[in-house]
Design a protein that fits this description.
The chain is α+β, with helices and mostly antiparallel strands and 90 residues long. The chain is 27% helix and 32% strand. The chain has one domain. The protein is built from 3 helices and 4 strands; from the N terminus they run ααββββα. The protein starts with a helix and ends in a 7-residue tail after the last helix.
Length: 90
């Protein structure tokens, strides 16, 4: 299995690559960003999000899912969540 630190670095690089060319995350959001990791079976899921009043209210901006056995994974980026107004962020 690949060490968590290496998976985290792979997730960071993959996320940076996926965000290249997209509008930047606004400075107002950057102050409150949280980087979280959770496990689902052999997957390690790294999310960058804005916390909400309740955990289910978090606004996930990016999600990298990597297999701890191979190091391979995918990234989803949601630029509409930082470029369009949201009720919870007004």
């Amino acid at each position: 299995m690949i060490h968590l630190n290496e998976l985290q670095e792979r997730a960071r690089v993959m996320t940076d690559d996926a965000m290249r060319g997209l509008p930047p995350i606004p400075e107002a959001y950057r102050h409150d960003l949280v980087l979280g990791m959770r496990a689902e079976g052999h997957l390690r899921i790294f999310e960058m999000y804005m916390p909400g009043k309740r955990p289910e209210d978090a606004l996930i901006l990016t999600c990298a899912r990597l297999d701890e056995r191979t190091g391979e994974g995918t990234v989803q980026v949601y630029p509409e969540r930082w470029t369009q107004p949201h009720e919870s962020r007004k």
